[in-house]
Design brief:
Length: 363
């Protein structure tokens, strides 16, 4: 139908008037109508074909990795064609290289930080060693607090004596425990012989009862002595050790303070140029830091020594009274006073079968 219309339009004659202008004939409107009809048909065919092409693209679209970017005009050479896969690989290469560079920078930063730490530690160790050697050979000066150092020496001497008391108390406990076990075995033997020797039943019976009574009182005394040993051990190996640890930190701070003080004094006696003044300012700053640290630890030591002395007096007053009353009551044979002493100091004896905890307590 389209071909017939086009052939008809092509064979139509266009009249030209005497002036050379085309005439406007009313019957020639069929040409304009044919052209409009051809345009509408082409538009419909094109739209339907575009719809089919779009559906085909949506169903089996092109692989983005295989598409290309064309630079230049239509019909250009293949030199302007850049595969997108190469662009994607290039981007991945750049991202991986940038991440590796960031990881290298982080590793380098950590290494530099460690190097600076080692450098500061080595410099501080060198200065402290130099100060220690100077003090030992009498060439360097040191900061001295006579009153505080006297208290520290008293504490160290007291700790040695209390350690000796603790050692002897443990030895007494072990020996007395063995004696109690021996008395217990001896009482059982006497009781058995009392049953098997009718002619000596009463004599064996008396001795068996006596050994059992001594064994019971011995176990009560062992409870008091064990409590005494435990308290002395806490005082010596925890409370005093904690104070001595702080004293050790104070002595190290004193050595560092004197080392930086000596370094500042040496720099102050040297030249006064720009480089020397910068070094003096840095040394002055370090000196102030060490001075603050030294004074802070010094105040901590003074406070701990004061509290330690008060705690030591309180603990030893209670423990010595307990030890005296328990020993006196035991060797006097006063069972009631011995039990009253344990109640006075809130000491609870464990039953004979409770030496080892049950499986439920171990969980």
């Amino acid at each position: 139908m389209t071909d017939s219309i086009m052939s008809k339009a092509a064979t139509m004659e266009i009249p030209i008037n005497s002036n050379g202008d085309t005439g406007t004939l009313p019957e020639d409107d069929s040409l304009e109508q044919a052209a409009q009809l051809q345009w509408s048909l082409d538009e419909k065919v094109g739209s339907s074909r575009g719809t089919r092409d779009l559906q085909q693209v949506m169903v089996s679209g092109p692989n983005l990795n295989e598409t290309s970017i064309v630079s230049g005009g239509y019909g250009g050479t293949a030199e302007g064609i850049i595969p997108t896969s190469s662009i994607k690989g290039s981007n991945m290469h750049h991202s991986s290289s940038s991440s590796s560079m960031a990881a290298d920078d982080a590793t380098r930063g950590v290494a530099v930080e460690k190097l600076e730490t080692m450098k500061k530690w080595g410099l501080n160790t060198y200065k402290c060693t130099k100060q220690m050697i100077s003090e030992r050979f009498g060439r360097g000066s040191r900061t001295v607090d006579l009153e505080l150092e006297a208290q520290i020496e008293v504490l160290r001497d007291t700790k040695k004596k209390y350690e000796n008391v603790l050692r002897l108390a443990r030895a007494l406990t072990n020996h007395f425990y063995n004696m109690v076990q021996t008395q217990h075995a001896l009482g059982d033997t006497f009781a058995d012989l009392s049953q098997k020797s009718p002619e000596l039943r009463d004599e064996f019976g008396y001795n068996a009862e006596t050994q059992k009574l001594l064994c019971k009182n011995g176990e009560t005394l062992l409870g008091a002595v064990n409590f005494f040993v435990s308290s002395i051990n806490t005082l010596v190996n925890k409370t005093m050790d904690d104070t001595l640890m702080t004293i050790k930190m104070y002595e190290n701070a004193r050595l560092e303070f004197d080392a930086y003080r000596s370094d500042l004094e040496e720099l102050s006696l040297g030249p006064r140029d720009a480089v020397a003044m910068a070094r003096i300012d840095a040394a002055q700053e370090q000196y102030q830091v060490q001075k603050d640290k030294y004074e802070h630890l010094r105040s901590d030591v003074i406070i701990k020594l004061k509290f330690l002395e008060e705690n030591k007096v309180k603990v030893m007053h209670k423990q010595l009274l307990l030890f005296h009353n328990a020993i006196s009551a035991y060797f006097a044979g006063n069972q009631q006073q011995l039990e009253q002493t344990l109640k006075q100091f809130n000491i609870k004896l464990r039953p004979p079968g409770a030496d080892k905890p049950s499986w439920l307590e171990e969980q």
